[in-house]
Amino acid sequence: MIIWLSDTKILEHKPFKKTYNIAGKNITLESWKLALLIDWSVVITDEDGNYLLTTAGINENVKPGTDFFPMTVDFQEKYYATGKIGWNRFMKRESRPSEASILNSRLIDRPIRPMFPKWTVNEVQIISTILSSSGTSDYGFYWITGASIALMLSGTAEFEWPVSWTRIIVDQNDEFKFDPTIDDLKTAKLDLTIAWTLDAITMVESQWQEVNEDLVIKAFEYAHSIVKEFCNMQLDFVSEYSRLHALPKSKIVVKHLPQDYKKKIADYVTEEKMTPLYHVWKTEFHDEMHKLWKEVKEWIWDVSDADPVTEAEIDECVYMAIKKHMRKRVLNEKIRLDWRKTTEVRPVWWEFGILPRVHGSALFQRWVTQALTITTLGWPGDIQIIDDMFEENTKRYIHHYNFPPFSVGEVRMMRWPGRREIGHGRLAEKALEPVLPSLEEFPYFIRMVSEITTCNGSSSMASICGSSMSMMDAWVPIKNIVSWVAMWMIFDDENGEYEVLTDIQAQEDFLWDMDFKVAGTVKWLTALQMDCKIKWLSMDIIRKVITQSQMALESIRVDMTKTLSTHRPELSPFAPFIVSMRIPVDKIREVIWKGWETIQRITKEFEVKIDINDEGMLSVTAKTQEGGKNAIDYITKMLKWVEVGDTWIGKVAKILDWIGAILDLGQNKSWMIHISKIAKERVTNIWDYLKVGDMVEYKVISVDTVAWKVGLERVIKE
């Protein structure tokens, strides 16, 4: 083989491979197996046939004027990984990322980003690609583990700690299980995804059903014991590799603010200059902020002897000074920008049924933040089919979250829903799914839409609280009202003190070190999401936040029940009427029959739509309540052996002169009405009373279960 000179340096990187046993599962790490031109690549495989490639790329050339951390994370699903062709009839190449891929990208980004210094300005790109999958679990702990190892091996010393995450469940027996299968997730009481360093939580996603606080804390602790093994595995792998090969020099550039200017500006921004920022509306707050920034810029350029700093650097120094003052007042004096207590929730208002033609609607307003939530009910045939790289799945409840530019007073281009909108929608689904009625109790497909019309912080709270009320307005019999609250924590690095704030408004948003969102009912919590900017967070803080959040949830829930405590007494006249029943699986064939013949006949006769699944759940969607019940009655009678007194409708298939008429009942069944039972008077010519194709209502007058004979008479309406 000829090795060109340009390839020699690349091929000096020898693959390094090592296998570890984590919680009884053999996991193999291998570097430089694939993607040889990127800064670093890691392949993770396991004994189940999963094969994940993660790459970390760092752009050494920083774009001029960059004043933020431009990191992107992309998670890629490949249909071939599970042996699927996938997509649709006309498009076989993977196209736009699926909703699951977008959510997974966010799950990788959120715990990785805080590990970099704030003023990192290099472009960093992390790409995780599933190349082979068993299809039994989502193995999310590989994604962040791969990204963390790739960043550490690339010489990124600024990436301070190994990060990993795990997914565990609590089953119906209150037992913990690591690396649950997709089937395990369907019956879990608690589904917890959590990211840690060796010592601290950095990110949490969770959904619960009837789980108390103590079990949640135990689940956190169990998850941490697993994640520690993954973090130690990373440290060992990097250490082993670095003993054999020198790690490359870091490309990361961190901008440092000039210390002399930073001190001058911090001294200039006094408590007196901060006064106009307190107890004002959002727009006034931003106006006062811009005035202060402008004043500081003019002052610093006047007093500076050396070359003046850039506007971006001045803005950051002012921002840091304001942040320091505000955080100090919260920590020391418990004073917030709007003078609320740290545990106080802003006033809320409700309005229901404001959209006359929709199936259910509610307007939630908390001070300035508004969410208009709309419920649309559909028949089971509307159910969403999820066709991703795993097995085909369905969703009977979806939540769409929209955040238009006018909601925050901005003028910008309208775009397709982004990662934030998709993430907020999925979060709402997690919060509300545990209280939804079963498909048997409420055989409707449910689509929720949250239109954020005005936002001054915590629009997710408005979305979920409003949706809970909107569903009740739409006659959805939810098990309990779900309320939602967003909590923030401020931490003092110098003395270790911290303060937990309830319901932060937009003006306070830049102060937090931890963002904690929780949803729950009067009995239990249903969902939790947490992101952390600091590099450690103890379980004591988690306990305090959960306890404080429950107080806020109860306060919000009481306000909600004052307006509407249960679902509406009747369905909207504009919603479809659905009646459902469960039939034995072995009877499905009788209902469908050849070419869906029976279904088509019932659909046409009663003007309904019929849906039946493999488990025997049959739903009839009708324009009127009467039509739906008549169709169900027809199907019920059709499936049972007849009894004396039953009435039925059959189609005349054949006339036998002097004998009677053969009625076609469907499902390859036919019975005969004797000539003596066709009319009250004596019949000599059947053709005078019936013709082939006529629909005849008849009554069962006798049943011989030994000879399997049924006696019928025609029902004559006066």
The CATH topology annotation of the largest domain reads as Ribosomal Protein S5, domain 2
| Secondary structure: number of strands | 29
Percentage beta strand: 25-35%
Radius of gyration (Å): 33 Å
Would you identify the CATH architecture of the largest domain? Answer: 2-Layer Sandwich
Q: Count of helical segments?
A: 15
Strand order of the largest sheet: 8-7-9-10-21-20-18-19
The name of the CATH superfamily of the largest domain reads GHMP Kinase, N-terminal domain
| Relative helix content | 25-40%
- How many domains comprise the coordinates? 5
Task: Please give the alpha-carbon distance between the first and last residues.
Answer: 98 Å
Poorly predicted segments = none
CATH class of the largest domain: Alpha Beta
Major sheet characteristics: 8 strands, antiparallel
Family: Belongs to the polyribonucleotide nucleotidyltransferase family.
GO molecular function, one term: 3'-5'-RNA exonuclease activity
Protein name: Polyribonucleotide nucleotidyltransferase
EC number: 2.7.7.8
